[in-house]
Design a protein that fits this description.
The structure is a single chain. The protein is an alpha+beta fold and 130 residues long. It has one domain: START domain (Alpha-D-Glucose-1,6-Bisphosphate, Chain A, domain 4, 2-Layer Sandwich). Strands 1, 2, 3, 4, 5, 6, 7 and 8 form an eight-stranded antiparallel beta sheet that branches. The mean pLDDT is 95. Strand 5 and strand 6 form a beta hairpin. It is built from two helices and eight strands; from the N terminus they run E-E-H-E-E-E-E-E-E-H. The longest helix has 23 residues. One of its GO terms (molecular function) is glycosyltransferase activity. It comes from Christiangramia fulva. Keywords: Glycosyltransferase, Transferase. This is Orotate phosphoribosyltransferase.
Length: 130
Protein backbone atom coordinates (compact mmCIF):
# COMPACT_ATOMS: atom_id res chain seq x y z
CA UNK A 1 0.00 0.00 0.00
CA UNK A 2 1.29 3.44 -0.93
CA UNK A 3 -0.05 6.76 0.35
CA UNK A 4 1.13 10.31 -0.20
CA UNK A 5 0.67 13.58 1.63
CA UNK A 6 0.11 16.88 -0.09
CA UNK A 7 3.32 18.90 -0.59
CA UNK A 8 3.37 21.73 1.97
CA UNK A 9 5.51 24.85 2.41
CA UNK A 10 7.20 25.48 5.74
CA UNK A 11 8.81 28.58 7.18
CA UNK A 12 12.04 26.69 7.88
CA UNK A 13 14.95 26.34 5.47
CA UNK A 14 15.68 22.90 4.03
CA UNK A 15 18.57 22.49 6.49
CA UNK A 16 16.46 23.62 9.49
CA UNK A 17 13.64 21.28 8.54
CA UNK A 18 16.05 18.36 8.15
CA UNK A 19 17.51 19.08 11.61
CA UNK A 20 13.99 19.31 13.05
CA UNK A 21 12.94 15.97 11.53
CA UNK A 22 16.07 14.12 12.64
CA UNK A 23 15.32 14.95 16.30
CA UNK A 24 12.72 12.38 17.45
CA UNK A 25 11.52 14.66 20.28
CA UNK A 26 10.13 17.07 17.66
CA UNK A 27 7.64 14.58 16.22
CA UNK A 28 5.33 15.21 19.16
CA UNK A 29 4.69 18.68 17.65
CA UNK A 30 3.52 17.03 14.40
CA UNK A 31 1.13 14.55 16.00
CA UNK A 32 -2.66 14.88 15.64
CA UNK A 33 -4.75 16.12 18.57
CA UNK A 34 -5.96 12.52 19.03
CA UNK A 35 -2.51 11.59 20.38
CA UNK A 36 -2.82 9.73 23.68
CA UNK A 37 0.83 8.89 24.22
CA UNK A 38 4.22 10.00 22.90
CA UNK A 39 7.62 8.94 24.17
CA UNK A 40 11.13 9.40 22.80
CA UNK A 41 12.88 6.10 23.54
CA UNK A 42 16.34 6.90 22.16
CA UNK A 43 18.03 9.38 19.81
CA UNK A 44 16.48 7.65 16.78
CA UNK A 45 13.34 5.91 18.10
CA UNK A 46 9.99 7.08 19.45
CA UNK A 47 6.58 5.60 20.11
CA UNK A 48 3.14 7.10 19.92
CA UNK A 49 -0.45 6.06 20.30
CA UNK A 50 -3.56 7.67 18.87
CA UNK A 51 -7.06 7.18 20.29
CA UNK A 52 -8.45 3.79 19.29
CA UNK A 53 -5.18 2.67 17.69
CA UNK A 54 -2.37 0.39 18.89
CA UNK A 55 0.95 1.83 20.02
CA UNK A 56 3.36 2.37 17.11
CA UNK A 57 7.13 2.49 17.48
CA UNK A 58 9.13 4.30 14.79
CA UNK A 59 12.85 4.48 14.18
CA UNK A 60 14.83 6.80 11.91
CA UNK A 61 16.21 4.18 9.54
CA UNK A 62 17.85 6.39 6.92
CA UNK A 63 18.80 10.02 6.36
CA UNK A 64 20.22 11.86 3.39
CA UNK A 65 21.15 15.36 4.46
CA UNK A 66 19.36 17.71 3.85
CA UNK A 67 16.64 16.14 1.70
CA UNK A 68 15.39 12.84 3.16
CA UNK A 69 14.38 11.31 6.49
CA UNK A 70 13.00 7.76 6.53
CA UNK A 71 11.01 6.47 9.49
CA UNK A 72 10.44 2.74 9.74
CA UNK A 73 8.19 0.65 11.92
CA UNK A 74 10.00 -1.54 14.43
CA UNK A 75 7.19 -4.15 14.34
CA UNK A 76 7.23 -7.18 12.04
CA UNK A 77 3.42 -7.31 12.30
CA UNK A 78 3.03 -3.79 10.89
CA UNK A 79 5.95 -3.29 8.46
CA UNK A 80 6.10 0.12 6.79
CA UNK A 81 8.30 3.11 5.95
CA UNK A 82 7.42 6.78 5.95
CA UNK A 83 9.71 8.70 3.60
CA UNK A 84 9.87 12.44 4.27
CA UNK A 85 11.26 14.47 1.40
CA UNK A 86 12.48 18.03 2.04
CA UNK A 87 13.26 20.43 -0.77
CA UNK A 88 14.48 24.00 -0.54
CA UNK A 89 12.17 26.68 -1.87
CA UNK A 90 13.76 29.90 -0.64
CA UNK A 91 16.03 31.32 2.05
CA UNK A 92 13.74 30.50 4.97
CA UNK A 93 11.35 28.13 3.23
CA UNK A 94 11.19 24.50 2.33
CA UNK A 95 8.66 22.05 0.98
CA UNK A 96 7.83 18.79 2.72
CA UNK A 97 6.28 15.76 1.06
CA UNK A 98 5.55 12.42 2.76
CA UNK A 99 5.31 9.03 1.11
CA UNK A 100 4.05 6.00 3.08
CA UNK A 101 4.85 2.46 1.92
CA UNK A 102 3.55 -0.60 3.76
CA UNK A 103 3.15 -4.27 3.04
CA UNK A 104 -0.22 -5.42 4.41
CA UNK A 105 -2.78 -8.04 3.50
CA UNK A 106 -5.81 -6.76 1.55
CA UNK A 107 -8.17 -6.84 4.55
CA UNK A 108 -5.75 -4.89 6.75
CA UNK A 109 -5.12 -2.40 3.93
CA UNK A 110 -8.82 -1.76 3.56
CA UNK A 111 -9.23 -1.15 7.31
CA UNK A 112 -6.26 1.17 7.80
CA UNK A 113 -6.06 3.09 4.53
CA UNK A 114 -8.39 5.96 5.47
CA UNK A 115 -7.07 6.52 9.04
CA UNK A 116 -3.47 6.32 7.79
CA UNK A 117 -4.10 8.83 5.01
CA UNK A 118 -5.64 11.20 7.55
CA UNK A 119 -2.65 10.72 9.87
CA UNK A 120 -0.11 11.42 7.12
CA UNK A 121 -2.07 14.47 5.97
CA UNK A 122 -2.12 15.78 9.56
CA UNK A 123 1.65 15.31 9.96
CA UNK A 124 2.16 17.26 6.76
CA UNK A 125 -0.29 20.04 7.75
CA UNK A 126 1.34 20.40 11.15
CA UNK A 127 4.80 20.64 9.53
CA UNK A 128 3.47 23.58 7.51
CA UNK A 129 2.42 25.34 10.75
CA UNK A 130 5.90 25.22 12.32
Amino acid sequence: MKLESPKVKTSKSQEEMFEFLTNVHNYEQLMPTSKENFEAISNDTFLFQLKGMPEIRLKITETKKPELVVLGSTSDKFPFHLNIFISGSGVNESEVFMNFEGNFNPMMSMMIKKPLQKFIDTLSENAAKL
